[in-house]
Write a structure and sequence with these properties.
- Helix 12 runs antiparallel to helix 13.
- This protein has 260 residues and is an all-alpha fold.
- The protein has 13 helices and no strands.
- The longest helix is centred in the N-terminal third of the chain and has 19 residues.
Length: 260
């Protein structure tokens, strides 16, 4: 997909301005998916500025590009700039699309995680609970998206160090997703968060089982060299070390070395 989009972008023939910017945004989104965040940022940064001049600050195309730019900046830990970009995108999407629109909800979730990573836990929890109420009202309690919001809340509680409350939120949501959406990506995210919580609580054996399941999914989803493939294996190695299974840990680390 990336190669095809790059060919389209490099060839100006038959592409009008709207098509060209959407090819650029689509290429950047693919690069983000592949973990090539620096390349995505280089493509999106000038586009973010240019679209403001060409289309206006709150044009939906610019806001879409801004969401992808904020994502790329977060992944590179450029926290201050990511916060500024995502705050502008969230405000714009709420104004133009409304607070209940799916794209607004996506940016809200990303902003919660940005606030969490910036250790602004009270703000993150307040925004996450607002998101929880919106999704419960529009899609229903127990919907896949609503259970996914529970995961987002649990992530904040985990980062804040409130492990017992994080487990209280995440464990029932994980069980419900296992039953209602076994093939949904929301279950993969919930599994990983639950594994992290259990690891922090010292329940290493169960955490390792979940990280093993995460690893199976990540090896399917992500291409060789992707950071999340490494992260899954690293978590398994850490759990084996905590259980003093050092031979097992060494085997995982050797496999991780071939991945990197």
């Amino acid at each position: 997909h990336v190669a095809k989009l790059q060919v389209h972008l490099g060839s100006n023939a038959s592409l009008n301005a709207a098509e060209k910017r959407w090819v650029s945004i689509g290429l950047a989104q693919c690069l983000n998916t592949q973990g090539k965040y620096d390349a995505a940022e280089k493509l999106l940064r000038p586009l973010w500025i240019q679209l403001k001049a060409d289309l206006g600050q709150t044009h939906p195309d610019r806001l879409y590009a801004g969401h992808q730019l904020g994502f790329a900046l977060r992944r590179q830990e450029t926290m201050r700039e990511a916060s500024v970009v995502l705050a502008e995108v969230l405000e714009g999407r709420r104004s133009v699309l409304g607070p209940d629109h799916q794209l607004t909800l996506m940016t809200t979730t990303l902003m919660v995680r940005q606030l969490r990573d910036a250790a602004r836990f009270d703000e993150a929890l307040a925004l996450a609970k607002e998101l929880d109420g919106t999704v419960a009202r529009t899609e229903g309690q127990g919907s896949v998206r609503h259970l996914s919001v529970s995961n987002t809340i649990a992530e904040v509680l985990l980062a804040k160090g409130d492990l017992a409350e994080a487990l209280n939120v995440q464990e029932p949501a994980f069980r419900q997703l296992t039953l209602s959406a076994p093939d949904n990506e929301a279950l993969d995210d919930a599994r990983f968060t639950l594994a992290e919580i259990l690891a922090r609580l010292g329940r290493y054996e169960r955490a390792e089982e979940l990280f093993e399941e995460v690893n199976v999914q990540d090896q399917k989803k992500y291409p060789p060299g992707h950071q999340l493939r490494w992260a899954a294996l690293n978590n398994i190695a850490v759990m084996r070390g905590e259980r003093r299974d050092f031979l097992g840990q060494l085997a995982v680390l050797e496999h991780l070395d071939t991945e990197m």
